[in-house]
Amino acid sequence: QVVESGGGTVQSGGSLRLSCAASRSTYRTYSMAWFRQPPGKEREGVASIDDDDKTKYADSVKGRFTISQDHAKNMLFLQMDKLRPEDTAIYYCATEGPPGGGFYIPQAYEYNSWGQGTQVTVST
């Protein structure tokens, strides 16, 4: 089971921290990631992290978002700073991903477990 939390509405330039709680069976995998789906658009990869804590970011969020994990608690996080209106989307946590998630962001179909999503809205 994968459950996200931490979404909400924030003004442009503000910050939010998303959390993802994964069951033991869905956590210990090669990589995990955050995806997002803006209104009317396809789901896109935001950031991924592998078991060695290597990370990869989409160019649109590089320098503003930070992905991290707590191995002891089976948790995944996404710290989002300097938020922009174009960051508005439903954000999804994905686990049970393939190797290499620290060098590139795997495609959505490569992840086997997903959360229900949490809405992030950035106002001007």
What this model shows, in words?
This protein is mainly β and 124 residues long. Helix content is 3%, strand content 49%. It is built from one helix and eleven strands, in the order βββαββββββββ. The strands form two sheets. Strands 2, 4, 5, 6, 9, 10 and 11 form a seven-stranded mixed β-sheet that branches. Strands 1-3-8-7 form a four-stranded antiparallel β-sheet. The termini are far apart. The relative contact order is 0.32.
Brief summary of the model shown:
It contains 1 helix and 11 strands. The chain is mainly β. It is globular, with a radius of gyration of 13 Å.
List the helices and strands and how they pair.
Blueprint: E1 2-5, E2 8-11, E3 16-22, H1 24-27, E4 31-37, E5 44-50, E6 55-57, E7 65-70, E8 75-80, E9 89-97, E10 113-114, E11 118-123
Parallel strand pairs: 2-11
Antiparallel strand pairs: 1-3, 3-8, 4-5, 4-9, 5-6, 7-8, 9-10, 9-11
Identify the notable features of this structure and list them briefly:
124 residues; mainly beta; 7-stranded mixed beta sheet
The helix-and-strand class reads mainly beta
Main sheet: strands, sense, barrel = 7 strands, mixed
Distance between the termini: 35 Å
Total strands: the figure is 11
